[in-house]
Design goal:
This protein has helices at about 5-10, 35-55, 60-65, 120-130, 195-210, 225-235, 245-250, and strands at about 75-85, 90-95, 105, 110, 140-145, 155-165, 175-185, 255-265, 270-275. With about 280 residues, it is α+β, with helices and mostly antiparallel strands. It folds into 3 domains: about 5-55, no CATH class; about 75-205, Nucleoside Triphosphate Pyrophosphohydrolase, CATH 3.90.79; about 215-284, Winged helix-like DNA-binding domain superfamily/Winged helix DNA-binding domain (Arc Repressor Mutant, subunit A). A hairpin with a 2-residue loop joins β1 and β2. The chain is elongated, with a radius of gyration of 31 Å. It starts with a helix and ends in an 8-residue tail after the last strand.
């Protein structure tokens, strides 16, 4: 037997009699029981999710009534620049992005900092996740915070830097990258975000650090010739240096120690082998 129109109406609206169900039936605005229960569950879930996402307050902050929602909170990322001398060139390690924004473009490795992480911990995690590289000493370089640098939201990034012998690294594309590869800093592909600007700044800082740190020695074996050391300086400065002036200046600092050993370089007479003198580091 067919159901009466009133029963069919009640069934369709799950007890909500606010629907109009036929000629002569009065429309009401009273929500049904099931509808109200559904709304209550949705609101409870929304509140629960908001509480989980809210930053945890210290007991001291709670005692003073601090309200973290009073201020907008920008996101924080870390970017990690890994440079090395490869094939007589200064090269940087880049990853090809897997997802939006800038999907398919090359970029410096990096990502968002989790609430419970320090900046250095986040940098090491991102480097491992995207390139497979671990156990690298990272130096904090600079912070970039232009409001429009990231199309997702307001993002401040802290950049870390390392200059390494690439042969020590086992590089591979990991979870968050499609590809990983080495590129000349003097011939870069189009880069995501503001990474071209970041790499230019890193190169300028690297050149400056040659004058007062031992960073160039990170790219050399324990024992090396003056010619090999000069070549490192020339690659980083991207220009030729006068041999006589370079040797006079570097030897006058006292940062090199003659090992007494020699090495053949081409058809010339054997060249002296030096090593870095850590006791003289302050003389740079």
């Amino acid at each position: 037997m067919p159901l009466p129109l009133s029963s069919l109406c009640f069934s369709i609206y799950n007890g909500d009699e606010s629907g109009y169900c036929g000629v002569g039936q009065k429309r009401t605005n009273r929500p049904g029981k099931r509808y109200l229960e559904s709304m209550e569950r949705t609101e409870a879930q929304r509140v629960s999710e908001a509480e989980e996402q809210a930053p945890a307050l210290t007991e001291e902050a709670k005692a003073h009534g601090y309200d973290p929602s009073k201020y907008e909170r920008p996101s924080v990322t870390v970017d990690i620049i890994i440079m090395s001398l490869r094939q007589g060139d200064l090269q940087v390690l880049l990853i090809k992005r897997r997802s939006w924004p800038f999907e398919g473009m090359w970029a410096i490795t990096g990502g968002f900092v989790n609430m419970e992480e320090s900046l250095e911990t986040a940098a090491k995690r991102e480097l491992r996740e995207e390139t497979g590289v671990e156990d690298v000493y990272l130096e904090q370089l600079y912070t970039f915070g232009d409001p429009g640098r990231d199309p997702r939201t307001r993002v401040i990034t802290v950049v870390y830097f390392a200059l390494l012998d690439s042969e020590r690294l086992q590089v591979r594309a990991a979870d968050d990258a499609v590809e990983v590869g080495w590129f000349s800093v003097y011939d870069l592909p189009p880069l995501a975000f503001d990474h071209a600007q970041i790499l230019q700044y890193a190169l300028e800082r690297l050149r400056g650090k040659l004058e007062y740190t031992r960073i160039a020695f990170n790219l050399l074996p324990e024992q090396f010739t003056l010619r090999e050391l000069q070549r490192v300086y020339e690659i980083i400065h991207h220009r030729r240096l006068d041999k006589r002036n370079f040797r006079k200046k570097i030897l006058s600092t006292g940062i090199l120690e003659d090992t007494g050993a020699k090495k053949m370089e081409g058809t010339h007479r054997p060249a002296r082998l030096y090593r870095f003198n850590p006791e003289a580091e302050g003389k740079l």
